[in-house]
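Quick board copy: two proteins, each given as sequence then tokens.
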Amino acid sequence: MESEFQPGKFKDTYRQKLKKVIEAKAKNKEIKTPGKKTKKTASKNLVAQLKESLN
């Protein structure tokens, strides 16, 4: 490694976001979470999709 690790250069954004969620829950506010991104597939058959994923 060329230089020493300096933790002051990094921000703990996870902890900041978690703290906001906890504070919002404590005030009985609704919490918005990002939705999951789904990928549409042509096949409705799960076994066919699994076989395609192996290729």
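And the next:
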Amino acid sequence: MPITEFDARELLGDEGLVIIILDGERYMLRITSREKLILTKPTREEEAKFVGPD
């Protein structure tokens, strides 16, 4: 069975950023200024932008 491929620019859209959830944990996948992909855990401030106020 072939592995699914995605074009990173299409996947990340104009913002160059997507949130990926694994087992309830959020991660940010983004394109850096050096045109590399990086996967990080969002800071509390970044997290608040995505989930809104409690």
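Board note added afterward: The mean pLDDT is 90.
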